[in-house]
């Protein structure tokens, strides 16, 4: 399946049972909610998906199940976050066999590669697969920035097609567009900046709170792209306190708690993460319940 790299791509949480195994029923329930809300693709095994705690076998199982459940309705993108180039290549090669439609690539993990090393890491993976690739550029959390000059090299590969723009600098959307035109698709990777980046020309949104609020997320995207900015702003103002939960180191626990409150998931996480307790839990729950108490009526956004 080709990927247009446009629209809303949820970075899905990984659902676990109380015993710590993959919760296939909860995964299916959330996936169906995303599809019904109108998402344009899904991403598995990202930071929000607790990638660092998943085995390779579990990641492969998630891809296979998602491909079977979605039946080609939207593309399935697998995130690759590895310390070894060899292992990243192996996963990329196998992803196509499992039915994945594309890949999202983080820079090398655990080693702070320089620009040359980082570019070569991405190039080596791109050479190993025909799958379309989105580069995840998040220097805030992963300490490596993919610069414009590095993208100049990377875009020589036809299958490197998009960037998850998470520098938290809205102007980078314009820098990328000025330098590369439409050669690269730009997807906002920071929930709190989505409207600003979409207005400035981003093509899509790799979203986090969409896991708990899929309809609201897709509605904002479609309203912005339809030019109905007043409606998009109003909805985004309601959403912002929730979206800010995506900016915390405990974003996994925060968003999973939101999924519980909207009936789309469970709180189960894998150690070293632990469920929220005490004052922190009360604070996050208050944000969620306050928002749900005034949850807005949505327009018929799917008709846009």
From TrEMBL:
Stretches that traverse the bilayer: none
SMART domains membership: DHDPS
Keyword Lyase: yes
GO molecular function, one term: 4-hydroxy-tetrahydrodipicolinate synthase activity
Keywords assigned by UniProt, alphabetized: Lyase
Record-listed E.C. numbers: 4.3.3.7
One cellular component (GO) term of this entry: cytosol
GO biological process, one term: N-acetylneuraminate catabolic process
Sequence positions that bind pyruvate: 206
Catalytic center residues: 136, 164
Record-linked CDD domains: DHDPS-like (cd00408)
InterPro entries: Aldolase_TIM, DapA-like
Keyword Lyase attributed: yes
Family: Belongs to the DapA family.
Protein name as it appears in the record: 4-hydroxy-tetrahydrodipicolinate synthase
Organism listed in the record: Rhabdobacter roseus
């Amino acid at each position: 399946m080709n990927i247009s790299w446009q629209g809303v791509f949820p970075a899905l949480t990984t659902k676990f049972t109380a015993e710590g195994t993959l919760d296939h029923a909860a995964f299916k329930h959330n996936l169906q909610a995303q599809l019904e809300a109108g998402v344009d693709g899904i991403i598995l095994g990202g930071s929000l998906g607790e990638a660092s705690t998943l085995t390779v076998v579990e990641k492969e199982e998630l891809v296979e199940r998602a491909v079977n459940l979605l039946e080609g309705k939207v593309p399935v993108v697998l995130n690759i976050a590895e310390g070894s180039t060899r292992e990243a290549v192996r996963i990329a090669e196998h992803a196509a066999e499992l039915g994945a439609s594309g890949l999202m690539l983080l820079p090398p993990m655990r080693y702070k590669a320089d620009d040359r090393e980082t570019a070569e890491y991405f190039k080596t993976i791109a050479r190993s697969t025909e799958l379309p690739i989105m580069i995840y550029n998040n220097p805030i959390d992963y300490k490596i920035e993919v610069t414009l000059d590095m993208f100049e090299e990377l875009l020589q590969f036809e299958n490197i097609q998009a960037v998850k723009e998470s520098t938290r600098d809205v102007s980078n959307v314009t820098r990328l567009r000025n330098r590369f035109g439409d050669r690269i698709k730009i997807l906002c990777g920071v929930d709190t900046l989505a409207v600003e980046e979409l207005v400035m020309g981003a093509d899509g949104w790799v979203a986090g709170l969409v896991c708990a609020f899929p309809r609201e997320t897709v509605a904002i995207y479609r309203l912005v792209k339809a030019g109905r900015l007043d409606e998009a702003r109003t909805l985004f103002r309601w959403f912002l306190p929730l979206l800010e939960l995506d900016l915390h180191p405990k974003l996994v626990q925060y968003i999973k708690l939101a999924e519980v409150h909207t009936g789309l998931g469970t709180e189960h996480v894998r150690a070293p993460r632990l469920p929220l307790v005490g004052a922190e839990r009360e604070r996050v729950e208050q944000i969620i319940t306050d928002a749900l108490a005034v949850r807005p009526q949505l327009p018929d956004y799917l008709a846009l």
